[in-house]
Amino acid sequence: MERKATRFCTGGALALALAACATAPRPAPPADPVEADIRDVSGRDRARASITPVGGDLRLRIEALGLAPGAYGVHVHETGRCDPPGFASAGAHWNPDGRKHGKDNPQGMHKGDLPDLLVGSDGRGTLELTIPDAALSGGAAALLDADGAAIVIHAAPDDYRTDPSGSSGARIACGVFN
Q1: What class has domain 34-176?
Q2: What is the DSSP letter of 108?
Q3: Are 101 and 164 contacting, i.e. CB atoms less than 8 angstroms apart?
C-alpha cells in the first residue's frame, strides 16, 4: 500500500511540473500612456489627451473640458512645442508615411489626421480612436522622436481632404505629449 501511495505522489509531482512548463507566458502589461494638457492661447485647460501603446498600434483619447459647442479639427503634430499665440511651433501634422491630408483624399492620410472632436452644449466632448501601425518610440512610425509631438485643436471642422490641414482653420489650443 505504501508503494502505491509513493508512486501516486511521484507521478502527481511530475504531472504538475510538466503542466507548469507548458503554461503560456503572460502577456506584457500595457505600457504607460503619454499625456498632454491641451491649453488655449490664454493658458486655460481646454482638453486632455492620452496615447497608450496597444500591440503595434496607438490608442488615443481626448476629453474636451471647456470648448464652445461644435465640431473641431484635431491633429497630432510632429513637434512637441506649443508656443502661443498661433502654436505654429507644433509644426506640421505627424506624417511618417509622407502622405497627403485626410481620410477622403485618395493620396491620404497622415497618421496625425483624426476625426473631428464634437463638443456638446456643456462644453464637453470625447474622441477615442486607434492609430494603426504606430508606436510611441522606435521605428519609422514613432510618435515621440527627438523633438517630441503635440496635439492641436483647430477652430473649424476638418473637411478630410484638403492638404495640408483639412481647411480646419486656426490652431486654437495645443498640448505637448510627455
Answers
A1: mainly beta
A2: B
A3: yes
* Cell numbers standing for residue 74: 484635431
pLDDT in tens, the chain (178 residues): 444 444 444 444 444 444 444 444 444 444 689 999 999 999 999 999 999 999 899 999 999 988 999 999 999 999 999 999 999 999 999 999 888 888 888 887 889 999 999 999 999 999 999 999 999 988 778 899 889 999 999 999 998 988 788 789 999 999 999 8
Alpha-carbon torsion angle 142, 146, 152, 157, nearest 10: -40
Give the domain ranges of the chain.
34-176
Q: Count CB neighbours of 77 within 10 A.
A: 29
